[in-house]
Inverse folding.
């Protein structure tokens, strides 16, 4: 079996398995970490083998999304109160009062920018853009030199698939295969087993479980590394 698998078609099982089991197993091998898909949780035992069990607990929920939304709403309230307080405050009569007003104004501006960032971060388009950027960065970290890099988008039965294709300059098939095997690992680096400066695509492993996304990597035309981000439509 290819390791990690290029898709569910690469997986072999001892008996008939449902799609959630195949996806969970494939993703666990891709990220080399525990992965939950639907009611199935897969645990990697080696680079080519994973055990799939029935999840005793519900699949991960987007508690982080709810937390951020709640924080954004709370900040909105704080911002309204602060703005009202600043407007009602009488003209400063001392340097200390002037400093307080200036500090309050700065805090209001900062809260406004943070609120905007939090709201923007919740959009699927923003999330997809960041994932694609981290995928491209991971390819570059693993390959070292990229002659060409392109992103294509297509629709596939409830998913929007973002394909990042990187053509390596002078890389051998073995080099590409080694890079492909490390796309889902944290701290990617081209040199041996050393770590790089960025976490890369691995930062999204938990988020992809929560949202029902998938990530698969393959090689094309003997000189290109392709990573497909299967992002489930809202």
């Amino acid at each position: 079996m290819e390791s990690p698998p290029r898709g569910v078609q690469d997986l072999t099982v001892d008996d008939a398995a449902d799609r959630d089991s195949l996806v969970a197993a494939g993703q666990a091998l891709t990220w080399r970490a525990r992965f939950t898909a639907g009611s199935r949780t897969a645990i990697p035992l080696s680079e080519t083998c994973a055990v799939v069990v029935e999840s005793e607990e519900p699949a991960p929920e987007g508690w982080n999304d709810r937390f951020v939304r709640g924080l954004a709403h709370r900040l909105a309230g704080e911002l309204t109160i602060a703005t009202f307080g600043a407007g009602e405050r009488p003209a400063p009569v001392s340097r200390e009062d002037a400093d307080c007003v200036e500090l309050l104004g700065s805090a209001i501006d900062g809260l406004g920018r943070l609120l905007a960032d939090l709201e923007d971060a919740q959009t699927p388009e923003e999330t997809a853009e960041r994932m694609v950027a981290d995928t491209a960065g991971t390819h570059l970290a693993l390959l070292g030199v990229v002659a060409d890099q392109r992103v294509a988008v297509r629709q596939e039965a409830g998913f929007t698939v973002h394909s990042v294709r990187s053509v390596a300059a002078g890389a051998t098939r073995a080099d590409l295969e080694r890079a492909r095997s490390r796309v889902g690992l944290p701290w990617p680096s081209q040199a041996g087993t050393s770590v790089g400066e960025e976490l890369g695509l691995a930062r999204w492993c938990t988020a992809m479980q929560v949202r029902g996304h998938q990530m698969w990597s393959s090689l094309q035309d003997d000189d290109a590394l392709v990573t497909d981000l299967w992002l489930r439509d809202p």
Notes: The chain has six helices and seven strands. Residues 59-69, 80-86 have pLDDT under 50 and may be disordered. The two ends are 33 Å apart (CA to CA).
